[in-house]
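Re: the 465-residue chain
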Amino acid sequence: MSNEQNEEVAYGVEAADAPVSIARVRVGRVVFEGVVLRTREAAIEFQELLNTACDKTRSSRLRKDGTRYHDPLPIGTPARLLSAETRDYLNDMDRRGLQPDTIDATARTLLILRMACGDIPVSRIEPRHIHLLWDLLRWAPPGLTSNPEFAGLSAEALIERGKAAMASCPARATFDLHHRFLSAFFNALVKARAIPHSPMAAFGKQKKDFTVDPDQPERLFSDEDLQRIFNPATYVAWAKKYPHRWWGPIIGLYTGARINEVAQLKVADILEERGTWCIAIRRTVDVDLAKDPHRKNRSRQSLKGQSAVRTLPIPQPLLDAGFLEFVEDMKACRHPRLFPHLSAGVNQKTGETNARYSQGLLSQFGRYLKDLGFPKGVGFHAFRHTLATDLDHQGVRVEDVALITGHSVSKKVPVLQDHYYHKKPDAIRLRQKTALTLYRPNVELPKYERGQFSALLKKRNKFYP
C-alpha cells in the first residue's frame, strides 16, 4: 500500500464519519482481511500495523508481483487535523509560561489560517493556502474572527466581503506579526516530525520600508516639551489625584523604564544596596496567588525578557524630589504595591492575571498629553527614547545604556559572555551611576510632601491586589 493510500485510509474515517471496510491488504507474507475502521484512532492503529508489517517483511530484492514498499513515513504520519495541532500548540505555549496576550494573538492567527485552508491535516497545508491567507488578511472584513455572520463562509467569500466594504490594508507590522506566529507554529510541527517541512519556508519577511512620514511626530521630548509636561501649574493639578500620576512620569523620565515596569513596582522593589538606594526591575511572587494551588501564575508582574531584569540606582533628582519619603508613606500603608490604585486586570477566559498594570497609567497620561496639545502617537514611551538618545549623544557606550534601559545587546562571543563573564554589582552600579549623572533634563520637579496622599491611602476599598 502506498503512502497516499495509507493516508486516505486514516483520513477517510474522520472526514466521512462512517466505518471504512477493507476487504484485503497484503504486505509481504502478511495478509489483512475483513478490516473495519470505525474511528480515527482505529485508523491510526491500523496504519501502525501496516508500518510494522512493512518493516518485518521488507526485502532488499524485488521479486515479480511482490510487495512494493513505500518510503519510510515521518513519525507524525498520519498527520492530525489543524484544529488538534492548534489546541496542543496553544496549550504548550501556556505551559511554557508565555503571556496571555501572546497566546491569544497566536490563536487568532491560527484561526484565520483555518479559515483559509479549512480544518485539514497539517501535512496537507501548502504554500497556496498561505497565499490565500495573505489575501484574507489584506481584505479582512471588520469582525473577521468575531462576527457570527462570517461562520461557515469560505475564504474567497470573506475576501469578497472585505473588498465590497473597502477594508483598509493592515499595517506592515501586522503582517510581520502573523508571519512570525505562523513560522513558529510550523517550525514546531517540523521539530516534532509531524510534517516534513514548513509551508512558510517559501515566504520571507517583508522588505523594510524606509519611507519617512514628515507628519509623523518624533518620539522624543525636547527640553521645552518636558517643561510643558512638568509645569507645576498643570502637572501638580493633574498628578495630585493618584500616587502613580505623581511618580510614574517622573520615574519614567529619569530611568527610561518601560511603563509596565514602573506601574507594577512593589514597595519591596525599592531597596538599599551597599549604601545606594535602588529600584529593582524584577518579577516576584504575590503571596495571595502562591497560596492558591489552582493558579498557574504566582506573580502579577511581567517582564519583556531576561535582559529586562535589572537594578537601577535611583537618580539624584528623584531623591531630591522626595521619592524616599513617598516610599515611607507606602510602607506605613502596608500595601505591597507602590501604586495600589492600578489594576493588573484579569483574563476573562482563564481567570488568570493579565499582568498589565500599565493600562490605567497609559490612558491617563495619554489624555494629559492630549490636553497639553501633544500629537497622537507621543506617550510615556518617549521618556525611554529621550533618555537613551541623550546618553548616546553624550558618548555613553551602548552596553552601558542597555544596563539602564534593559535592552538586550547582541553578543559577539556568546559562550564567553554567558558562562565566563560574571556580573559584579558594584562595577555595574558604578557604570549606571556614571551614565545617569550625565542625564540632566532641564526641568523642575514638584517636591513631594510626606503624607500628601494620606487621605487617599485610607480608602482601601479603592486598592487593587
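The first helix runs from residue 3 to 16.
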